[in-house]
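Why should sequence recovery work at all? Because a backbone constrains its sequence more than one might expect. Tight turns favour small or flexible residues, buried strands favour hydrophobic ones, and helices have their own preferences. The token representation captures these environments compactly. In the example below, the structure is given first.
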């Protein structure tokens, strides 16, 4: 399932799993994915978080204020993704495809969270000023440009010869 994910994106899932166990959740939910993203803190998403002054501590306090914390559970307990978290991962995959990215990275996970607009993570993100279209545009602008294959040096004479026989030879 995670073969298209970059190492950073996989770490986010790992961190989310840990956060879910610390928060005594029976499943990995969107707020755990958000905490995982903040723990990873790299790439375009990290820059967006930094610019927005959004930190792990700020989000953790927000989750606490909403009464979403419980006692820690064992990290060895099987922990599935919640339906919302599964949709976030599907959205992230779609965002990567939309941007012609070969892999799903953490900025795609951030966009996936914002697309799942009725979840706790999206509510926290939008309350801090992050909105889907703006983050999508910022991600697009900061993503490395795709390399264009160089054109063969002798393509024009061959094309001209094909289109206008005799022209390239001067006749």
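From this structural description, the recovered sequence reads:
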């Amino acid at each position: 399932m995670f073969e298209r994910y970059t190492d950073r994106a996989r770490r986010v899932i790992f961190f989310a799993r840990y956060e879910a166990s610390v928060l005594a959740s029976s499943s990995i939910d969107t707020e755990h994915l958000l905490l995982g993203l903040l723990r990873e803190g790299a790439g375009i998403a990290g820059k967006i978080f930094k610019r927005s002054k959004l930190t792990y501590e700020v989000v953790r306090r927000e989750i606490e204020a909403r009464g979403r914390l419980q006692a820690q559970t064992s990290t060895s307990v099987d922990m599935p993704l919640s339906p919302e978290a599964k949709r976030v991962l599907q959205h992230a995959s779609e965002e990567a495809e939309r941007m012609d990215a070969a892999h799903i990275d953490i900025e795609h996970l951030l966009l996936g969270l914002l697309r799942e607009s009725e979840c706790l993570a999206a509510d926290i993100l939008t309350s801090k000023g992050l909105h889907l279209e703006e983050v999508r545009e910022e991600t697009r602008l900061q993503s490395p440009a795709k390399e264009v294959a160089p054109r063969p040096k002798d393509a024009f004479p061959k094309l001209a010869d094909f289109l206008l026989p005799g022209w390239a030879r001067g006749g």
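A few observations help interpret the result. The chain has one domain: 7-142.
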